[in-house]
């Protein structure tokens, strides 16, 4: 089943191909969902978390956990909303630092998967190339 969001941005920031079959890329994306890393920055510990949603009913997004297993519920093409959150961890509290939101469309092209990335808004310090690097790293 195709899972396409009808308001996917018309202007794409980056398009590229992953040398992996569609179902393998879906599995990579599912593994990336709700993961986090903690790094030491200039201000202290920074937690980076990735939340992924998939298009549902052409008008909204659904958490990936609500559509398991992903490889049995998606075919041909899928749109994702990827939220990359950064939080500064202090002894007193957690302070949100940055939030980067991207739309990702993947399309089955046989032995390769075509990917389209569009950033939502201008906020945040990451761009489409950063998301491409994360995807390639997770899938290879």
Description of the structure:
This protein has helices at 22-32, 70-73, 128-139; strands at 14-18, 35-41, 44-56, 60-63, 77-89, 94-109, 112-119. It has 3 helices and 7 strands, in the order βαβββαβββα. A hairpin with a 4-residue loop joins strand 5 (77-89) and strand 6 (94-109). It is α+β, with helices and mostly antiparallel strands and 140 residues long. The protein has one domain (14-139).
Secondary structure topology:
Layout: E1 14-18, H1 22-32, E2 35-41, E3 44-56, E4 60-63, H2 70-73, E5 77-89, E6 94-109, E7 112-119, H3 128-139
Care to give the gist of this entry?
The chain has helices spanning 22-32, 70-73, 128-139; strands spanning 14-18, 35-41, 44-56, 60-63, 77-89, 94-109, 112-119.
The total number of structural domains is 1
Q: What percent of residues are in strands?
A: over 45%
Structural class: alpha+beta
Kindly state the mean pLDDT as a whole number?
89
Span between N and C termini? 25 Å
Shape descriptor reads: globular
Summarize the helix and strand pattern as letters.
EHEEEHEEEH
- Low-confidence residue ranges: none
What does the main sheet amount to? 7 strands, antiparallel
Rg: 15 Å
Total count of strands: 7
* Proportion in helices: 10-25%
How many helical stretches? 3
């Amino acid at each position: 089943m195709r899972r396409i969001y009808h308001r996917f941005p018309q202007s794409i920031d980056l398009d590229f191909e992953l040398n992996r079959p569609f179902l393998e890329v879906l599995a990579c994306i599912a593994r990336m969902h709700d993961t986090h890393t903690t790094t030491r920055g200039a201000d202290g510990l920074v937690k980076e978390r990735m939340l992924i949603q998939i298009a549902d009913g052409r008008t909204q997004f659904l958490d990936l956990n609500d559509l398991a297993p992903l490889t049995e519920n998606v075919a041909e093409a899928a749109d994702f909303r990827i939220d990359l959150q950064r939080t500064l961890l202090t002894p007193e509290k957690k302070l949100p630092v940055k939030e980067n939101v991207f739309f990702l469309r993947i399309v089955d092209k046989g032995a390769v998967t075509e990917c389209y990335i569009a950033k939502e808004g201008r906020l945040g310090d990451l761009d489409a190339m950063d998301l491409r690097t994360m995807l390639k790293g997770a899938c290879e």
